[in-house]
Specification:
Elements: H1 3-12, E1 17-20, E2 26-28, E3 36-40, E4 67-73, E5 77-84, E6 89-96
Parallel strand pairs: 1-3
Antiparallel strand pairs: 2-3, 4-5, 5-6
Length: about 110
Amino acid sequence: MLRPELEPILRAGGAAVVFQAHRHLEARMKPRGGIRYFVTGAGARRPDRFRPDSRTVDRAHRGAFLHFVLVEATRERFAFRVVDAEGRVRDQGDFARPPQPHSSSPDISAALR
């Protein structure tokens, strides 16, 4: 798992959301270190079996379905909707992004050591 190595870089860069798609399923992870993680990889292939654990947000459908994620993001807000192959919204939410220091390029050198 790369998360321990990547989190300092993501935080230093001001990331609020991370999407990963290696697994063919949908899962929303509990926020960690101020970053929200989404697994979304079941757009065309039969979904993998979903195995919830303490890191995932508990939901009845368990994420094993074909889907896409509609995202609306601005500097201030992030909203998402998980839509299944039949057009039903299976999960949704929005949150305010924490204030970020204004910088054209964040200094991530400490995170790369």
